[in-house]
Amino acid sequence: MASILYYYNRFRTRLTNKINTHIYSGNKVHCEMCEWHGSKFPKGRCPNCNSLPRTRLIAFAVNHFKLNQQQQVRLLHIAPNRAEMKYMSETFNFNNGGQYDRLDILPKYKINIVQDLTKLQIEDEQYDLIIIWHVLEHIPNDYKAISEMYRVLRPGGKALVSVPIVPFDREITYEDDTIPKEKYKEIHSHPDHCRSCGLDYYKRFETIGFNTEEIKVIALPPQTINKYGLSEKHVAWLFAK
Ligand SMILES: [Zn+2]
Question: CATH says 52-240 is which class?
C-alpha cells in the first residue's frame, strides 16, 4: 500500500511540475541545478527538477567557487539525493582519472560506498572534493566525521558543506549530549537533529585544520537571491585542506 501511495504521489508531483513548467515559463528566474528558466519557482520548487532552495544553493556555490572548472575531479558525495547525483554527473568531469563516489551509511539507490562517515575504510588523500549537504546535524560525533573528511582529502582538497542554522540567525551552536532523542524535535526542531547548528559551526572545521570561505545568502543582493531561487536562511561553506 505504501508503495502505491509513493508512486501515486510521485506521479502527481511530476504531472503538477510538467504543467507548472508551462504556466511559469519566462526568464526571470534560473535554476542552476537543471538550467530551467521561468517566471517564478512555484512554492519554492523548480518545476523542472523539483529542487528546493537549499539544493539550488549547491549549484550556486559550485559556480560561485568555480569548483567545476577542474579537468578531472575525484569527488566524494555524502548522502546524496537523486537530483544532486544527476547534477554532479552533468556538472563535473569524472573522465581521465576522475571519480564520483556516493557514500551513505545504508545501501540506497546509486550508492557505491556503504560506510559510516565517522569510521571510513578509505585510504588517506583520495579526493579533490567532498560535498556534504544538510547531513552533519544528524551525526552525533561530527568532529570525528570532519576529521575523517580531512584525512581522505588530498592537500589542497576542498569540502563544500551546509547545515541548517536553526533558527536562521542563531550565532552559537547549541548541543547537549545528555538530551534524549525523544526531545530532539522539541529542542532542535527536527526529530533526527542532534544539535542546533549556529553561524559559528564552521569553527569545528577550523579546529580540525581547514580554512574557510563562506556564502551567507542573506548577504547576497536581493536580485541574485530571487533569480536563483535561494533562501536567506541558508549558509554554505567551502573548506580547504
Ligand atoms: Zn531545476
Answer: alpha beta
Residue 1 has pLDDT above 60, yes or no: no
Q: Is residue 101 within 8 Å of 129, Cβ to Cβ?
A: no
Ligand 1 centroid–CA 28 distance in Å is 14
Cell readout for 23 is 504556466
Pairing of strands 113-114, 127-133: unpaired
Q: How far is the CA of 240 from the centre of ligand 1 (A)?
A: 28
DSSP 210: -
- What residue has cell string 545501501? 107
DSSP state, 48? T
pLDDT of 67 over the 80 cut: yes
What's the CA-to-centroid distance between 31 and ligand 1, angstroms?
5
pTM for the model stands at: 0.93
As a whole number, mean pLDDT of residues 56-82 equals 94
Residue 131's nearest CA partner among 27, 221, 25, 58 is 58
pLDDT computed for residue 12 by the predictor:
84
Tell the residue number behind the cell numbers 522539541, with chain if given. Answer: 186
